[in-house]
Amino acid sequence: MEIIEILQNSNISPEISNKLMPILEDSMMKSNKYIKFAITKMDSLIRTLLEMSR
User: Fold this and answer.
1) Which residues of 11-42 are buried (b: 16+ CB within 10 A; e: fewer)?
2) pLDDT value of residue 54
3) Which of 20, 34, 36, 40 has the greatest number of CB atoms lying within 10 Å of its CB?
4) In angstroms, rounded to a whole number, what is the distance separating the alpha carbons of residues 54 and 49?
5) Cα separations (Å) of 9 from 14, 24, 33?
6) In this predicted structure, what is the pLDDT of residue 1?
7) What are the residues whose beta carbons fall under 8 Å from the beta carbon of 20, sequence distance 6 or more?
8) Are 3 and 24 a contacting pair, CB within 8 Å?
9) pLDDT over 90 at 53, yes or no
10) Contacts of residue 24, Cβ cutoff 8 Å, sequence gap at least 6
11) Largest Cα–Cα distance of the chain, in whole Å?
């Protein structure tokens, strides 16, 4: 979110800012999907290891 705040509060022209915002939002969405996927995999691994240790 800091990058978006910087773009909104800086002296960057609105034209450039408007072009960058969709790219940043898309990148953030992809990053969030990857993080959720990684957390799900890690959770699965931990559950499996806990079950095996019993």
Assistant:
1) eeeeeeeeeeeeeeeeeeeeeeeeeeeeeeee
2) 86
3) 20
4) 9
5) 11, 16, 27
6) 58
7) 7, 12
8) yes
9) yes
10) 3, 4, 7
11) 60
Q: What are phi and psi of 30, to 5 degrees?
A: -65, -40
| pLDDT tens string 2-43 | 777 777 777 878 888 888 889 888 999 999 999 999 999 999
pTM value? 0.63
Q: Kindly give, in sequence order, each residue whose CB lies less than 8 Å from that of residue 3, ignoring residues fewer than 6 positions away.
A: 24
Q: What is the DSSP letter of 19?
A: H
Structure-block tokens of residue 15? 């034209």
Question: Is the alpha carbon torsion for 25, 7, 20, 34 positive or negative?
Answer: negative
Amino acid at the residue 48:
T
